[in-house]
Amino acid sequence: MSALKSREAILFGAIFALVALIATRFPGFVAPGNLVAVFTDTTPLMILAMGQMVVILTRCIDLSVAANLALTGMVCAMINVAAPDLPVAVILVIALVMGSALGAINGILVWKLNIPPIVVTLGTMTIFRGVIFLLTEGKWINAHEMSPTFTGFPRAEFLGMPVLGWIGVVIAIVMMVVMARTTLGRAVYAVGGNPHAAVYTGIDVGKTQFKAFVISGMLAGLTGYLWVARYSVAYVDIAGGFELDVVAACVIGGVSIAGGAGTVVGTLLGALFLGVVKNALPVVDVSPFWQLAISGAAIIIAVAFNAKSGRSKGRVILKSAEHAQ
Amino acid sequence: MKLTKLLASAAVAAGLFAGPASAEDMRIALVVKALGIGFFEAAAKGAEEAAEELGGVEIIYTGPTDTTAEGQIEVINSLIAQNVDAIAISANDTDALVPTLKKAMQRGITVVSWDSGVAEDGRQAHLNPSSNPLIGNMIIKLAADHLPDGGEVAVLSATTTSTNQNVWIEEMNKVMGDYPGIEVVATVYGDDLADKSYREATGLMQSHPDLDAIIAPTSVGIVAAAQAVADAGKIGEVNVTGLGLPSEMAGAIESGASKSFAIWNPIDLGYSATMLAHQLATEAATAEPGAEISIGRMGTITLDDTNAAAMADPFVYDSSNIDDFKDIF
């Protein structure tokens, strides 16, 4: 537990140092308004990363999150075009249900057919994008076709922060409770930590993995609506390649790719770290040719830190011998 | 050499057919990539306009139902069977259509390509919607027109390696001298991703508080930048302009985030392609390098070494005409 705590402390320190470094080059970055903007901008990544974390904890991976986001977002936009008066609450429910359904497809394939998750989600990722193409024939849905309430919801301000940011906060709290205080949350850790032991304690490994995919899909679906509304545009390629950012956020946040280890707070910090880098690079006047290299280096350094701090110490059985060295 | 031979035989053949057909209308086929695409429907409108202006011209608007070269080959074969006078085509494939179009030319049919070209062997002339220097000049002009006292502008491009955008920006920089007082303070890259473009545009407004305009010569970037300006509450301070599609930019024009932007006008393109085909089919002009060909209200075009020509400046869209075009493409 203390090791996990310190891992998050290191990450928190890294983000703080990064922000301080950016402030020396661009003081406006640390203005409260801008920090709120950065947080809000990072919210989609945080929400997706929390879903991805649950999946990775069960020794699986979900590469279809960005495609799920794009498909659900497109369907939400199409519904909005067809029925502009439909309340946002209904759209939110549709997004959650549809995202869950898409996630359940992944889950069923992994659970019932025992196909490796990376293969399943690689397939569904392409299928989801293909379905968008079939639905739209490649056409865009644009700002003027969406209703103002549809696009206005995530950016409406509440206590100084857009609703989008608050949704991230609420989901973070819910996820912390779920992971720490419910049987599902504990089962997820058990399945990832030691599947065989989990079976002996009466946990259905496949079913738990299925549930993890449904959670990931549900959050991806929700983000789909938020994304489309925020950028006021829906087309086949939205959030292209975003699944890799999501996995990176988890890994930076200390979620073990081997499953079983990782926390909600760590994942949030991992996403926030990437979000700060993404938002800072345009303002600190770094050559665009360097940006990709810097983002990549930041990921590797962060993971190296994590790997070092997270390495199990091993049990010292010859104390005197160790002292002698 | 081969081309001139072809042209000669085409001209002879055309002469043979000209006799009996002269009483009837000249039939010009406008072949598009696929039917049902707004852009091409608009081009057909322009072709009809040209036909009306010319008189005695019948437009056959046709194309396959999906954007395949095979589909277009079938369409061309049926046009050859109908013995039309001219074919103006926007090709689905540069090379695949060449043999069929050669056959058409051998039968005395005038063949020109427009919008999306055919390889040199397969057509007599090609009409590009615009040219790189014209586009480069247009994007800076769009920004400068709304900045009579000069100001700071920034470019939001696609990726660092996008050939089109890089050439246009290069051409833009060449003509910067014509726009005194306008200063390009930054060039950033949104990778044609909505979220990255949005973030880059937000960054531009933060690091350059006096920024007056963002030029985005890419359709994803211009939409994202307009949204970023609207969200930052800087409508009226920062004008977003560049190249975009009317259907995608209608919201930004309405909100005022963008005062104007440009893209080729499909109506003008269909009109000009028809005019060009008519000029060549009536032998009022010959397709040879350096030839100056009049294309009605669009002025005159000059064919280059490959018998290709640029139609005109990109067409500017603003609040006065956006409603006419936003449902078209």
UniProtKB/TrEMBL annotation, chain A:
Membrane topology: Multi-pass membrane protein
Record-level GO cellular component terms: plasma membrane
GO molecular function: transmembrane transporter activity
Main location: membrane
TM stretches of this protein: 35-58, 65-83, 89-111, 118-138, 158-180, 209-228, 249-277, 289-307
Subcellular location: Cell membrane
Keywords tagged on the record: Cell membrane, Membrane, Transmembrane, Transmembrane helix
Superkingdom of the organism of origin: Bacteria
One Pfam family hit: BPD_transp_2
InterPro entries: ABC_transp_permease
PANTHER family: ABC TRANSPORTER PERMEASE PROTEIN YPHD-RELATED-RELATED, RIBOSE IMPORT PERMEASE PROTEIN RBSC
Name used for this protein in its record: ABC transporter permease
Species this chain originates from: Halocynthiibacter halioticoli
From TrEMBL, chain B:
Domain Periplasmic binding protein span(s) in chain numbering: 28-282
Cellular component, GO, one term: outer membrane-bounded periplasmic space
KW ATP-binding (keyword) present: no
Subcellular location: Periplasm
InterPro entries named in the record: Bact_Solute-Bind_Prot2, Peripla_BP_I, RhaS, SBP_2_dom
Principal localisation: periplasm
SUPFAM superfamilies: Periplasmic binding protein-like I
Signal peptide start-end: 1-23
One term of GO molecular function: carbohydrate binding
Keywords assigned by UniProt, alphabetized: Signal
NCBIfam families, per the entry: RhaS
Family named by the database record: Belongs to the bacterial solute-binding protein 2 family.
Alphabetical list of PANTHER family matching this protein: ABC-TYPE SUGAR TRANSPORT SYSTEM PERIPLASMIC COMPONENT-LIKE PROTEIN, D-XYLOSE-BINDING PERIPLASMIC PROTEIN
The name this protein goes by in its record: Rhamnose ABC transporter substrate-binding protein
Native source species: Halocynthiibacter halioticoli
